[in-house]
Amino acid sequence: MENKNPLSPHIQIYSWHISSLVSIGHRITGVINIIILTIVMFWIGSLLIGENFYQTIFNFLNSFFGKFFIIGTIWSFTFHSLSELRHLFWDLGYGFELKTANLTGALVIIFSIVFTVIIYLIGRVFF
Amino acid sequence: MVQISLPQNSKIEKGKYYKDKTGSKNLRKVNIYRWDPSTGENPRIDTYEVDMDNCPSKVLDLLNKIKNEIDSSISYRRSCAHGVCGSCAMNMDGKNGLACTKPHSEIKGDINIYPLPHLRVQKDLIGDLSTLYKQYASVEPWLKNSNTKSEKENFQSKEDRAKLDGLYECIMCACCSTSCPSYWWNGDKYLGPAVLLQAYRWIIDSRDEERKERLKKVADELKLYRCHTIMNCTNACPKGLNPAKAIASIKKMLATS
After folding, report:
1. Interface test with A, best of B116, B124, B229 (most A CBs within 10 A)
2. Which of A7, A15, A96 is the closest to B245 by Cβ?
3. Which of A26, A101, B46, B77 has its CA 20 to 30 A from that of A60?
4. Domains plus CATH for chain B?
5. Is the pLDDT of residue B1 over 70?
């Protein structure tokens, strides 16, 4: 017989930890990265068509939304890479103690922002 | 299937408000999940004003006080009151734990008490753990050793015994499994942290002769690899154990064997 009793609340009431936030962030940025890569590939492809497309992309990337897009892309990739690094250490069997896991989780969040700023500035200054 | 929202019959409604009758100045509001199977109504949150001047330190004491002095109809499991039996596992302040070891002074603001997450509720704070127990039985949690005739001791070196530390202490309270989002969405197939920690406890036991068969049995896309190292289990464990590490150890054994 199917149990018709109510289901106790779960995600609605469960408090977030650093580890669960980084975990869901890892998944979301993973999906976003694939979408961004696809868009970038189409852009590169569109360059073959002619100069007009280059100008359109150039204008977009220099607009306010374009800058937001660039910074978002950098953050998404840095966050996912750093978090993946954390996962690689876990796969080797290290870093499971609660304190370590919380620390590395916080480091992922902090350094994803730090690296985003650095990479964006490098891009602005040198390219 | 990932279902974020609760089904229609599980939506929580506003319940009764029990005003303080003692005239105490040191009051705290306690919100408790209530569901009565005999009425056919939806679950509700009842709020109790509790006199904290005459209440011992743990959340379980608080519940006992409410049951004894304010509302005797409230149901919850409890037995040893010393963090040994695992009966009073519930969700307090958004985190799973044992009511008998969790001090209510650690909770800021109103005290919210729910049953363990994503279980079929039987009454009030009592969730149905029968799926988890079936999964526990499926890992055959007993020593398998062909040498049953011998009347001598079954020796184990100190080093091999030490491998069981951090595993044998598990009291199967289900705090970890019911804190795991993967277990919420795939609880019928994924074994969950509690059962996998128990599985590892027998895999790593030097006296057990069926390590290979045990590993083979859990090596399954759904049974084992739904663990995505969210670490909610380790965060929740009231005994300070590390189910996430135990699961990773199984994965590592499978990858290297």
Report:
1. B229
2. A96
3. A26
4. 8-127 (3.10.20.30), 130-256 (1.10.1060.10)
5. no
HSE of B136, CA atoms in CB hemisphere, 13 A: 15
Check if A99 contacts B (Cβ < 8 Å): no
Query: Is B229's pLDDT higher than 60?
Result: yes
Q: A23 and B230 in contact by Cβ < 8 A? A: yes
Give the span between the Cα atoms of B235 and B239, in whole angstroms: 10
| pTM listed for this prediction | 0.92
* CA separation, residue B34 to residues B15, B100, B148, B182 (Å): 8, 20, 50, 26
- Domains, chain A, ordered by start: 18-126 (1.20.1300.10)
CA B82 – CA B90 distance, rounded (Å): 15
- Tell me: ipTM over 0.95: no
Q: How far is A10 from chain B (nearest CA, A)?
A: 4
Report the gap between the CA of A89 and the closest CA in chain B (Å): 11
Q: Summarize pLDDT for B159-210 with one digit per residue, the tens.
A: 999 999 999 999 999 999 999 999 999 999 999 999 999 999 999 999 999 9
A97 and B116: CB-CB below 8 Å?
Answer: no
In this complex, do A11 and B228 lie within 8 Å of one another by their Cβ atoms?
Answer: no
**Exposed/middle/buried for residue B148 (C-beta within 10 Å: 0-12, 13-18, 19+):** exposed
- Alpha-carbon B21 to chain mean position: 34
pLDDT, averaged across chain B: 95
Residue A79 C-alpha, separation from nearest chain B C-alpha, in angstroms:
16
